[in-house]
């Protein structure tokens, strides 16, 4: 089997395990995918999910930030980085990450939801209301 196929097998298995809540096992396969091809953003996205699922938010940020720099046009990386940053209480940076994801893909519901959630968590209730209402349109 050629290298891209091995990448996709490892990455997709890691993604599937994450979806099942088996984050520690998913982490292993995501790391294997990145070792095969560190130029593809999906391995970083899925590893970030695995690390966050294990409560390892600082480690997720340390991985997602360089992954985001390597793939600046990938909105899911920005959104996942924002989630990890918010979990660490780094709200301003999280807001920047969510807004970057929205700018890249204006119809990205997850990023818009996370941005509105963050506004609510930081006491900006009127802005949060506007954000949630926009999601209903």
Task: Explain briefly what this protein structure is.
This protein has 137 residues and is mostly helical. Helix content is 80%, strand content 0%.
Calculate the mean pLDDT score and round it: 94
What class do helices, strands and sheet pairing give? Answer: mainly alpha
Summed up, the helix count is 8
Instruction: Based on Cα principal axes, name the global outline.
Output: elongated
Portion of residues within helices: over 70%
> Which residues form runs of ≥5 with pLDDT under 50?
none
User: What is the β-strand count?
Assistant: 0
What radius of gyration results from the CA coordinates? Answer: 15 Å
End-to-end Cα distance, whole Å, is 46 Å
Largest sheet: none
Portion of residues in beta strands equals under 5%
Quaternary arrangement of the chains shown?
Answer: single chain
Write the layout of secondary structure elements.
Elements: H1 3-19, H2 23-36, H3 41-53, H4 57-70, H5 75-87, H6 91-104, H7 109-121, H8 125-135
Helix pairs in contact: 1-2, 1-3, 2-3, 3-4, 3-5, 4-5, 5-6, 5-7, 6-7, 7-8
Task: Report on the architecture of this protein.
By secondary structure, the chain is mainly α. Helix content is 80%, strand content 0%. The protein is built from eight helices and no strands. It starts with a helix and ends with a helix.
Task: Sum up the structure in keywords.
mainly alpha
């Amino acid at each position: 089997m050629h290298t891209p196929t091995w990448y996709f097998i490892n990455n997709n298995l890691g993604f599937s395990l994450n979806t099942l809540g088996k984050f520690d096992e998913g982490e292993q396969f995501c790391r294997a995918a990145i070792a095969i091809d560190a130029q593809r953003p999906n391995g970083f996205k899925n590893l970030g999910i695995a690390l966050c699922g294990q409560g390892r938010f600082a480690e997720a940020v340390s991985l997602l930030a360089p992954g985001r720099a390597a793939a600046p046009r990938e909105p899911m990386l920005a959104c996942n980085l924002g989630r990890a940053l918010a979990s660490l209480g780094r709200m301003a940076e999280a807001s920047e990450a969510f807004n970057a994801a929205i700018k890249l893909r204006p119809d990205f519901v997850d990023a818009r939801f996370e941005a509105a959630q963050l506004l609510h968590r930081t006491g900006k209730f009127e802005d949060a209301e506007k954000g949630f209402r926009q999601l209903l349109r």
